[in-house]
Structures are given as structure tokens and as C-alpha cells.
Design goal:
The chain is an alpha+beta fold. The protein is about 35% helix and about 20% strand. Bound molecules: zinc ion (ZN).
């Protein structure tokens, strides 16, 4: 009988083939006309998990179903709760894809398709690892529960409500969240922190109607100029947020964790040139770029709809202007509190003659995880074995909203990791999954189950 490791090695082609079936389903959760396709992806995942020997339940939510699966035949052993999502981002702009987003294609050792890395290619490794154990042993080395959602890219309300109402069913000893990535190609990583987010819109209203700037310029307030004043009042030229109380709860990283970041193979010049492509990196002085992206909160403006944006000129003083703004938060900032502070400061900054409407959404709570958690130690060893290279500790500037619920609501020691490369183009055209990483990922989950189960 082969080992689970050997079984996975012997089934590379089959795993890739099956993953391609899932990647062909355009499960774009945010688009109402893709509701059926999104349901089809849920059914595919459910059917697949059933076929490998798990007990499966498709749980309806207000929008896209959750897939819950379990295999609890390791009495006395710990339980791992695995997480992934089967929904994907819209593929636009389509003309920038070298091959169509829902026709998975292999080029240069990578599989190109929407969802290849985020997150179908990652959630699939949970199933493949379960299967490798069950095909080679009579039982799993741990009890395994999987919760796979279909709204990660469009709100995630379904899983949030389920976790809060049905925490008992998801009870476990550790969670394994596969929605992150490696630090660099071939350098596996455990993600110890995620930033949270508050996003929203600030709408400034000036005159009662759009006005002629020749007739009224000089007396009518301009909402775009007002917005510019508000925005510079929110963040200074050095990148420091000027909202009173904003930094009060920020916890700096542990010196050992920060020292680890300084040792990472991070090439600032290459990062500037290849990833950012601007004239210089910006941000708060006194913090390294990794620290600014991982352990410092920030504020960005995403768009300013309003006024005249057609070709040519129209000398109008618009009556309204909007700025879409978000803040990335770090532990222990509280999204609801930050939203209140933001609201109050925007009002205080609003110039005379204008009024403001502030709408905010509390997207996600920031999280940090201790590197000393036994589950994190087990994951670091499992990743190192699978990739043949020491796993490093990183953080991620983005958010995975459900992680805060796993940690706070379910009280689970949570391992956040994944196999995506930094240039996987998640959310962009030509999303890809490095196939070597995919197979290392399967091996890493196999080993993680063994280590948590005490079998290794
Ligand atoms: Zn994702």
C-alpha cells in the first residue's frame, strides 16, 4: 500500500484534471445572472467531497449555498476545520486574458483560469489530502470538517450568519484557512496576520443644482474642491492618517516577528519596478515596506464619481461629488469604532457652504495569530516538508473576513496559509496557479493532518 504522500504523487494528472472541471464553472458570486453557475460550483464541490468518502450537506443561505463536509472517524484525535471558497471574481476585462478565463489552460508549468489560485485550486487541496489518506489507510489521522463558502468575493454574509448560529457543528481544535499564499515562488509561508477593512463613500453636496462656473464661480462652493480638502485632512503627505484616535488601538508587531520580516528575501527595488511600477514607494517614514503593508493601517481613495467626465470641456460647478474611500486596519483596531471616528472627522473637515453624507460598511476585523500556537507550528513543519524549504511567517495586507469569526466566535486556533504566488493575478486577468505549488500544497495538507493527529 502506498503512503498518502505517494498516492498524491501518483495522481498529479488526475487531480489537475478534476480541478479543471471545477474551474470551468463560472461561479461569479457577485453577478445575479451567474446564480445558477455559482450553485453548480457548490454542487460540484459537494458531489466531489461525497465521492471521496465524506458526509456532505449543502446548506442554503440567502444567496449562495455553503458546502459542509465531515469525516469523523478518528475517535480521540483532534478535529481540523478546513476552509475555502468556490466563488470567484468577475473576469473583466476579458480582452486582457491570453486564454479564456473559464477554459483552464496550462502554460509554463502554471494553470491559467479565473479561480485557479483564488480559491478553487487551494480548496481542492483539502479534498485531495483527505482522499490521499482515505485511499491508503482505513481512516484519517484526524477528524476533518470542511466549510466551503460561495460568497467570499461578494460579502460573505452567509457563512458569517452560519458560524454565529451553528458554531457547535463547526467545533474543532484548529482551523486551516486556505486563501492566502507563499511569500515568493518556492518559499512557503504561514500568514500570521490579516488586515481588516472599513469601506465607504463620502458625498459632498454644494449648490442645489449644477451651475455655470462663469456666472457663479467665486460664490458657489465646489464639492470636488471640498472633497480634496477633506481627503488631505484625512491623510497627510507622509501617509499618516489624521483622524483623531485612529492609531490608539494599533498593536505593533512582536520584535521577533518583525526581525523575521527583515530576513525575508524581499528585494525592494525589484518590488518597486516589477509590482508597483511607480517612481517611488510612498508611506509612513520609519517603517519598512513590508511593515507598512502588513502591520500599519492605511487609507485609500478608489474613485471620485460625479461632475462632467465626458470628452471636451463643460465649465460646470457640480452640485454633488463622491469619493469612494477605504481604510485597511490592523489589530486591535475595531471597524465599528474606526467608522465612527472617520465619520466624525469627515464632518469636522467639511468646508463652509457644503454638507456631507458619509456611508460606511464594516468589512472585516483585523486578526493576528501567535506563531507559538501548536497548530501554527504543525503547519510550519508540514509546509517545510512539502516544499523542501523552511516555511516563513508573513502577514497579508488584505482581508479574509471569516477568519475573525473563526478566531473570536468559534475560538479556534487558526492557520492561514495557501499556495498562490504573489503574481498569481488573483482578481486580475490571467489568474494562474503554479502546478508545482498545487502539488506541494496537497502534500502540505496531508502532512498537516498527520501532525495535528499526532501520527507524525
Ligand atoms: Zn479568496
Amino acid at each position: 500500500m502506498p503512503t498518502p504522500f505517494e498516492f498524491a504523487q501518483a495522481h498529479h494528472a488526475q487531480f489537475e484534471h478534476e480541478l479543471c472541471d471545477l474551474l470551468r464553472i463560472p461561479s461569479i458570486s457577485t453577478l445575479p445572472d451567474h446564480r445558477d453557475a455559482t450553485k453548480r460550483a457548490a454542487d460540484w464541490v459537494a458531489h466531489h467531497l461525497k465521492s471521496i468518502g465524506m458526509t456532505v450537506d449543502v446548506i442554503p443561505t440567502k444567496r449562495h449555498p455553503l458546502v459542509y463536509a465531515e469525516r469523523l472517524d478518528a475517535p480521540g484525535r483532534p478535529t481540523v476545520l478546513g476552509y475555502g471558497h468556490y466563488d470567484v471574481q468577475p473576469p473583466d476585462p476579458l480582452d486582457l486574458w491570453e486564454t479564456p478565463p473559464f477554459e483552464p489552460t496550462v502554460r509554463n508549468g502554471a494553470l491559467y483560469a479565473r479561480g485557479a489560485s483564488d480559491d478553487k485550486g487551494q480548496l481542492f487541496t483539502l479534498a485531495a489530502a483527505v482522499r490521499a489518506h482515505l485511499e491508503t489507510k482505513t481512516a484519517l489521522p484526524v477528524n476533518v470538517k470542511l466549510i466551503i463558502e460561495g460568497e467570499e468575493e461578494s460579502g460573505g454574509e452567509g457563512i458569517e450568519a452560519y458560524v454565529r448560529a451553528h458554531g457547535d457543528r463547526l467545533r474543532a481544535d484548529a482551523a486551516l484557512v486556505l486563501d492566502s499564499g507563499v511569500f515568493a515562488p518556492g518559499v512557503p509561508a504561514v500568514t500570521l496576520g490579516l488586515r481588516g477593512i472599513v469601506s465607504g463613500e463620502v458625498e459632498v453636496i454644494g449648490a442645489a443644482r449644477d451651475l455655470h462656473s462663469g456666472i457663479y464661480g467665486g460664490v458657489a462652493p465646489n464639492p470636488f474642491v471640498a472633497l480634496a480638502e477633506i481627503i488631505t485632512g484625512l491623510k497627510d503627505a507622509e501617509g499618516r492618517i489624521r483622524i483623531p484616535g485612529f492609531y490608539d488601538r494599533v498593536v505593533p508587531p512582536d520584535p521577533a516577528e518583525k526581525a523575521g520580516w527583515d530576513r525575508l528575501p524581499f528585494d525592494e527595488a525589484a518590488f518597486l519596478r516589477d509590482e508597483v511600477g511607480s517612481a517611488a514607494l510612498v508611506g509612513e517614514p520609519g517603517y519598512s515596506p513590508l511593515e507598512r503593508m502588513w502591520a500599519r493601517p492605511t487609507l485609500d481613495v478608489h474613485g471620485m464619481p460625479g461632475g462632467f467626465i465626458g470628452a471636451g470641456s463643460k465649465t460646470v460647478i457640480p452640485s454633488r461629488a463622491t469619493a469612494k474611500i477605504s481604510m485597511r486596519l490592523v489589530a486591535n483596531q475595531n471597524p465599528a469604532e474606526i467608522a465612527r471616528l472617520f465619520d466624525a472627522h469627515v464632518r469636522a473637515l467639511t468646508p463652509r457652504g457644503t454638507r456631507v453624507e458619509v456611508r460606511t460598511r464594516h468589512g472585516a476585523t483585523p486578526v493576528v495569530v501567535s506563531p507559538a500556537l501548536p497548530a501554527v507550528v504543525a503547519a510550519q513543519r508540514a509546509l517545510s516538508e512539502a516544499f523542501g524549504r523552511d516555511a516563513v511567517f508573513i502577514r497579508m495586507g488584505g482581508s479574509v473576513p471569516i477568519v475573525a469569526d473563526f478566531i473570536e466566535t468559534l475560538g479556534l486556533p487558526t492557520v492561514i496559509t495557501g499556495w498562490a504566488v504573489p503574481d498569481a493575478n488573483a482578481h486580475s486577468p490571467n489568474e494562474k496557479l503554479d502546478l508545482a505549488h498545487f502539488h506541494h500544497g496537497i502534500q502540505a495538507v496531508i502532512r498537516f493532518f498527520e501532525r495535528i493527529g499526532g501520527a507524525a
